[in-house]
Amino acid sequence: MGTGRSSRFGSLLVQLHLAVLGTAALGFAAAAGATIQLNRQALVRDHLHRATSAAEPLVARLDAVAASPQPVDLSALSRAIDRQSRGGPLFWIRRPDGRRLLSRPLQGIDQAPLFSVPGGSGDGPGPVTPRTIGNHRYLVHRHHRSTDGTDLWVAEDVNEPWRALVRLLMDMLLIWLGCLALTLLALTLLTRRIIRPLRELNRMAAAITTDTLATSRLALAGAPREVQDLAEAYNSLLDRLAHTWDHQRSFVSAVSHELRNPLTIISGYLRRLQRRGGSLQPEQLRALATAEAETHRITRLLNDLLDLSRSESGRLELLPGPVAVDEILLMACDLARSQLARRLELRLPQDSTEQPVMAIAEADRLQQVVLNLIENADKYTPDNAPIEVELVRERDADGRPGVAISVSDRGIGIPPDDLPRIFERFHRAANALDRARGSGLGLSIVNLLVEAMGGRIEVESELGQGSCFRLHLRAPEAGDPGAGPGDGLPPQ
Ligand code: ADP
Q1: Which atom of ligand 1 is nearest to the CA of 432?
Q2: Which of 154, 181, 352, 417 makes an SS bond possible with 348, Cβ 3.0 to 4.6 Å?
């Protein structure tokens, strides 16, 4: 079942994990971004608030200096800045001529980055700009511009709240990772549970064959409703399939039956015509022979179809018993020779003239199998090379007596890729397609019959060299119905 192997991402479980991971990562990124933004705004708001209250006296002085018609001594202003800067934000003043009045230089740091912050336009507070100097973080802005163009600047060290914010984010990250691990674990357990019925469904569906189609039912007690619905849909599909299958079998069986009788009659008339055809032209006789060969071919095909349909409906019943295989082979080879243009050699065990070679089989079916193999050997051997049939006595791996019948040819052989599938229904090897007509059914029926007789068949083949089909049958043993003493068993 299924269409080949899907990629790892095709798994429902992996897709769910990826979806959860992706959503969680997005969620965390959004939450972290929002937290940073809100905290930053709060930090700026606090900074502005503190700066406004601390700068109030300085703003008043600056405005007074600006309004004074006389030149003012700036040292008083400088002292005021110094006072205001103590323990709070750092203030400095920039005069319109560029001079800077700074209360106290910050210890050990280069303050240039603070002074390079752009002040913005207008008289009100300029934009609040963060600046990092060393490992300290400052918020800087121009707080006030008086009428003479003097600016009051503020810088505040916000290192502590900033660190607290970073710590909060790290804690959030840890908590988030922990939650994610727990979520994934829970999800894995949950999805395994959810997917289990689907796997079960898959397993049950894979076990259904054409033989079990009519009786197979997928039942998943306790599965989620969706899966149960799926199983029900499967079951109704199985019903319809079984029905169609049944119809098809009956149809094939009925048609094969109906066609076989007229074909036998046609074939009989053709044979009679040929025998009495003294007045016929040679090409008319050839046409009759072709017509007879074709009726023979179609009859074989119909018989094969009938056997298949019988085996599928369990009606192909063989009654194997002890038979003299050497006699069956003699008859089959005589029959085959009458239709072959090439030599057919039969090799029997030397003692077969005194003692028949017995095996468990059904005489007609064994003959059908052998004829089928000989016909194939003839069909797939282009030149006049002979076909060899050989019967030997053998013992199987457990030492039980049996016989082996081999049919060998020196024909086109079977490509290694096709060899394992050669007994499958309708399978034809790549090199056979343009050589001879065929249905691809013969060997599957041979296999079916051999197995029904309790035997097995194997093939050895080399491309361009030839093929050898060997079938193994069990010899009768004491206790087999119909087995007599000394039924051709080989000496131990
Ligand atoms: P078909 O009607 O095609 O002969 P079979 O079931 O009898 O069907 O054989 C299946 C396929 O096995 C053939 O199509 C052919 O490719 C291969 N085959 C069978 N017998 C031989 C053989 N003696 N030599 C080479 N190929 C063979």
Answers
A1: 16
A2: 352
